[in-house]
Write a structure and sequence with these properties.
The chain has about 210 residues and is an alpha/beta fold. The chain has helices spanning about 15-25, 45-50, 65-70, 85-95, 120-125, 135-140, 155-170, 180-190, 195-210, and strands at about 5-10, 35, 55, 60, 75, 100, 110, 115-120, 140-145. The strands form three sheets. A five-stranded parallel β-sheet has the order 2-5-8-1-9. The mean pLDDT is about 95.
Length: about 210
């Protein structure tokens, strides 16, 4: 339960939710859990956000998320957006358990479980030269593949009820009467290209308008 995990699936299939459950159902559940979206950073900012930054003269230190997640779990969403130079530094973490802060004279040991997620097919990214094969091999210690919502039709009505109750509670309603069977059938008949995220949006908007 300490090895890295790769969570793969289309956008909106609940990869972040699965990552958090993997943490809280592990022996590390009482330790820090941090999420970071790799697509939200430039290369330089992602370097600092992950590994930190140190002044060799001791003037300042910025702790990266690996140090902040010490003993716990770091979830990296959109792992496919990590540039090649930083893929090498991630590989160093997985192989040796150390990080190399920007500007720092020495590496630092860390004990962090890494969970990564992507909506892309990483073997294809490897073939295209955009992702390291050795990094993929390490990340694939365990792999969780999430099917799209269109392949999980039986999940739609329970999710609709869940999102409806939550939205009604946020609006201060005493109860949530639910949708009609006709509405359930209509929702089950859609392809949902945006998956669970799109379904939640439709349900919440409908409850709010009602």
């Amino acid at each position: 339960l300490n090895g890295p995990v790769l969570v793969q699936g289309e956008r909106g299939t609940g990869k972040a939710l699965i990552a958090s459950r993997l943490h809280f159902l592990s022996p590390r559940w009482e330790q820090t859990y941090i999420e970071l979206n790799c697509a939200a950073y430039t290369e330089a900012l992602l370097d600092v956000a992950l590994f930190g930054e140190s002044d060799a003269g001791g003037g300042y230190d910025i702790d990266g998320q690996f140090l902040r997640a010490e003993g716990g779990t770091l979830f990296l969403d959109n792992i496919d957006r990590v540039p090649p130079r930083l893929q090498e530094k991630l590989l160093q973490v997985l192989e040796k358990g150390v990080i190399d802060p920007m500007g720092g004279p020495d590496v630092q040991a860390v004990d962090v479980r890494l969970i990564a997620a992507t909506h892309l097919h990483l073997p294809t990214e490897v073939e295209a030269g955009r992702f390291r094969a050795d990094l993929l091999e390490h990340l694939s210690f365990d792999v969780v593949s999430l099917p799209p919502l269109r392949a999980r039709q039986a999940d739609i009505v329970p999710l609709v009820q869940l999102f409806g109750r939550r939205m009604a509670a946020r609006l201060g309603a005493d109860s949530f009467p639910g949708f009609t069977p006709e509405i359930h059938l209509a929702l089950e008949g859609r392809d949902w290209p945006g998956n669970i995220r799109a379904l939640r949006s439709v349900v919440e908007r409908s409850v709010a308008q009602a």
